[in-house]
Specification:
Layout: H1 2-21, E1 24-32, E2 35-38, E3 42-52, E4 57-65, E5 74-78, E6 82-91, E7 97-108, E8 112-113, E9 117-123
Parallel strand pairs: 2-9
Antiparallel strand pairs: 1-3, 3-6, 4-5, 4-7, 7-8, 7-9
Length: 124
């Protein structure tokens, strides 16, 4: 009889664990502007939207860049189906030309990455 009770308890909690693990469903991202051609340094704003299946929920995230840099871990409460977060990257110098990107890495409660938001920077 003890075995049946244990199985019932496990079955009751497994769906809740699966739902909790999939709280963040997707992450969208854009860069503004998508291309820069002008004097530098240039300020590029990256805006990500974190979409969740259940709210309110706390989300921990970190920005990652094409140059290998990682931003600090941040924590935000999401009180609706989605919430935007942003970051500004100041970059470039005289005659500097690059294609750069940033992405958002959601660390918890669901490990998920946004796509890379690419920007072409042409400094004059």
């Amino acid at each position: 009889m003890l075995r049946k009770g244990f199985v019932l308890v496990v079955l009751l909690f497994v769906p809740d664990l699966a739902i909790a693990q999939r709280t963040v469903t997707r992450v969208g991202i854009v860069a503004k502007p998508r291309a820069w051609d002008g004097p530098c340094p240039a300020d590029i704003e990256f805006i990500a939207t974190i979409h969740v299946s259940r709210y309110p929920t706390w989300v921990e995230y970190q920005w990652e860049r094409s140059d290998g840099a990682k931003g600090p871990r941040r924590r935000v409460e999401i009180r609706s189906a989605g919430r935007g977060v942003s970051e500004v990257w100041r970059l470039g110098g005289k005659r500097w030309r690059r294609v750069v990107w940033e992405r958002l890495h959601v660390l918890a409660p669901t490990g998920i990455y946004s796509p890379e938001a690419r920007v072409t920077v042409n400094c004059r």
